[in-house]
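User: tokens in, sequence out, please.
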């Protein structure tokens, strides 16, 4: 103590100050170190997305087989009948009379043949003119194909170097015709319709099979099943099944549904296989949501005279709906992007027509994209990029719906 009777505070020596300084340094450096890989991952994903999106358009020097003429946007735009309007303009440019045009467009078979050989496209640029309608043919000769930025930098030289009968197109591969066309071995005629419809068929059946089964199993395990060794074993196995690689489910689906049940490589086999993949995820998500409902809500319902089933399905399940719906949609989004199990159960790489039922041959978006990437023709790279963008948009919509439904049904206890 000093003369005033107050005990002086101990002074920090140099070693103590050094320890505190190091602690402060590492306290600031650790969050920064964690942020670095996150930023790098975001930059890599952004670069990948930018590359895919820009690859959906290309500059092409083409020798058209048809009339070679293009038509202004408002000259050919007629809403949903734009296709027929542009085709009439093209046939007139080829020199056909009104009767000859009627023979092509009014006859169902001739119309189908024309649509199978030709594609109506809205080009972003034709010989320097913006937004031009063009009827491209499957036998058009493509002299050059350049990426978006490479062609933009050289567009002046490309225009000056055009020979007689050649046209310079800025071709957006992701257009309305891309969704309407069937699969084709020719890039300009390749479309996404069979894969998109096949994906809708498979996912619709997966939802019908897995969602009721998964939610019912979750309700039983949480509200009815006693805490025994068997239920604990089931819970452990469910968590293990949720982490099993998807290709294992493909092997199981091939053995059981395709061969043992003799369903063959059809939509139903794919839906049953993906349901096996999705059900454990749905059960786990639904159980976590049900478990989050406070036990006091159950006791209050019992106090009012509700039965066990009334408490489960009128109190607990509605209270857990936010988590259940979110888990279901995220599980379905995973199923949309799966490729390996569907390749094993026989999803076709080339399907020339739309599936029309659960026992139809089919393909899905990831497999169709895989087949385009494997093609040797460089133009299929643009087609595959357009398909990737569509798949990303579908997944983004599903995740957006999951976020909205979670906010819509969210309850604070």
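Assistant: Sequence out:
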């Amino acid at each position: 103590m000093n003369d005033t009777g107050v005990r002086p505070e101990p002074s920090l020596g140099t070693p103590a100050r050094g320890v505190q300084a190091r602690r402060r340094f590492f306290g600031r450096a650790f969050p920064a170190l964690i942020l670095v890989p996150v930023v790098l991952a975001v930059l890599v994903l952004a670069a990948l997305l930018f590359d895919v999106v820009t690859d959906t358009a290309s500059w092409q020097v083409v020798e058209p087989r048809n009339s070679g003429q293009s038509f202004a946007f408002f000259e050919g735009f007629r809403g949903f009948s734009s296709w027929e309007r542009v085709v009439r303009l093209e046939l007139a440019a080829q020199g056909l009379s009104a009767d000859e045009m009627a023979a092509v467009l009014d006859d169902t078979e001739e119309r189908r043949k024309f649509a199978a050989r030709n594609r109506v496209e809205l080009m972003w640029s034709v010989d320097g003119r913006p937004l031009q309608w063009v009827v491209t043919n499957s036998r058009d000769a493509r002299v050059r194909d350049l990426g978006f930025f490479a062609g933009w930098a050289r567009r002046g030289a490309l225009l000056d170097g055009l020979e007689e009968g050649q046209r310079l197109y800025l071709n957006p591969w992701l257009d309305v015709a891309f969704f309407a066309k069937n699969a084709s071995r020719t890039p300009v005629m390749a479309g996404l319709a069979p894969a998109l419809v096949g994906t809708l068929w498979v996912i619709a059946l997966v939802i019908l099979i897995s969602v009721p089964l998964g939610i019912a199993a979750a309700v039983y395990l949480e509200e009815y099943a006693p805490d025994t060794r068997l239920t604990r074993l089931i819970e452990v196995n469910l968590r293990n099944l949720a982490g099993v690689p998807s290709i294992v489910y493909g092997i199981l689906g091939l053995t059981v549904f395709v061969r043992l049940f003799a369903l063959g490589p059809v939509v139903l086999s794919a839906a049953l296989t993906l349901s096996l993949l999705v059900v454990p995820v749905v059960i786990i998500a639904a159980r976590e949501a049900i478990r989050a409902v406070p036990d006091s809500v159950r006791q209050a319902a019992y106090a009012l005279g509700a039965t066990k089933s009334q408490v489960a399905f009128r109190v607990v399940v509605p209270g857990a709906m936010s988590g259940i719906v979110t888990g279901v949609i995220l599980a379905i989004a995973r199923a949309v992007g799966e490729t390996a199990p569907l390749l094993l159960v026989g999803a076709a790489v080339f399907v020339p027509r739309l599936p029309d039922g659960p026992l139809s041959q089919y393909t899905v978006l990831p497999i169709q994209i895989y087949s385009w990437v494997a093609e040797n023709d460089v133009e299929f790279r643009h087609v595959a990029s357009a398909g990737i963008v569509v798949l990303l948009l579908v997944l983004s919509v599903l995740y957006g719906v999951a976020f909205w439904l979670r906010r819509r049904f969210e309850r604070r206890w």
